[in-house]
Amino acid sequence: MSQTQTAPAQPPETTRSGTHNALIVVALLWAVQLVALIGALSGIAQAEVAIHFRTTQIAWFTLMTLLTGTFFLPFVVKGAALFGKKRALLVATGLGLVGDLVAAVATDYGTLLIGRGIAGVYAAAAPLAYAITRDVFPRRWVGLASGIMAGGVGLVAFGGPFLSGWLLDNHGFRGVLWFMAASTALSFVLIAVLVPESPVRERGGRMDWLGGILLGGGITALVYAVGEGSHWGWSSGRFIAYVVGAAVALIAFALVERRVAEPLFPLSMTRRRSVWSVLLATSIAAGALSAVGVVIQLLILMPKIPSVSEGLGWSGTHNAIVSSPISVMIIVGAVGTGYLARRTDARILLGTGTGLAVLGYAIGTQLHHSAGEIIGMGVIAGLGTGIVVAVIPIMIIEVVTPEEQALANGAQTLGQGVAQIVVSQLAFVVMAQHGKVLHGTQFYLDAGFTNGLWLVVGCVAVGGLFALLIPRSKQLDEATVGQAA
Length: 485
Fold this sequence. Notes:
With 485 residues, this protein is mostly helical. The chain contains 16 helices and six strands. It has a two-stranded antiparallel sheet with strand order 1-2. Strands 3-4 form a two-stranded antiparallel sheet. Strands 5-6 form a two-stranded antiparallel sheet. It is globular, with a radius of gyration of 21 Å. It starts with a strand and ends in a 19-residue tail after the last helix.
């Protein structure tokens, strides 16, 4: 791909103050963490949504945004390369706001899912924000800014439960939905006012519509089939047809990308071992860690009904208080990783993070019946989670060029989203094997929660093992970082 970089004549250190850089970090931090915040809010609200709408299909309340986000992500990332990353980020945020508003006013579950689906376009915000970070900051800011942005997931995990608990306890799930819309509107304003446009742009490029439709359609068909497999039957003709169709679309995508002049995701980039191994390991590990919220939130918030439901039945506020130490550990792990990455092999950090997460949630499979046990599980797993989420953007910076950054971030987000959808849906399937339906709502017994946690443990462990395939690469201080190169 042909790229051009219209950087200012002077390096950023002399043209922009530290205060200005800090404000940009704040705006990008909010853009990145809004994805996590909305995910946290959705997790807190899903139990009440399921009971209100009397649905056994509550999985799609959280998965719908991932499904549409997965489909549109390649187009948004390519659009960022053609028209500017800030512009693409504003478009994604604007559509996210429209979807949030539709969901907030929905009076039936179908309309609610439509709104959530439109809002899913906002999933592209995180990879675009990380790419802008590399493009517009001086070298000494890149690692710290990336660590802070990733570490913000701890702030979300810390403040999100208190906020969502208060909203849910006092205003119901409608209050949660309206807060999502207000938060997205704030993100749009911060980006528009504070964030500069990236100087890295593709010169004279074109949108690869066919490649995007094949990739997005293939992945969407696959994750939809996984989502409905338990209802259709895993050996049913309908499930097999979707899986085969998805495989054909993805094979066709690979063939198309080899022949088009300007591919959506250049195969020359993804064929490099340093790139595909990082994408594979981080997508599986982070996707599984994102999916664990499905199990934990239902365990905590579902009511306790003898022989029907063995959730803990806590209020949203009680959940926030108990989970606050976990959130602190996520912050510690993520921000600490931002500093350590300058002098420590990122592969070691990824292995350490996945190891701690596996240990914490493995303990939780047996000990998850009281506040003390939830805290014990979460403190260990939270530290590991913070390390994993912070090291991902740093690892990608280390293995790709500035021109490839947005595409590589997009590919990682795409892979992580697919992993999250698959693991989440499998968790619902596993939990439902030990559950009951009452008045149209799916409830779960303790064995279901235990098996759901074991599923997550296994998937995170697989991601950690794939880290062994990653070759030695440049460390952060040796990598080319946009304007600071």
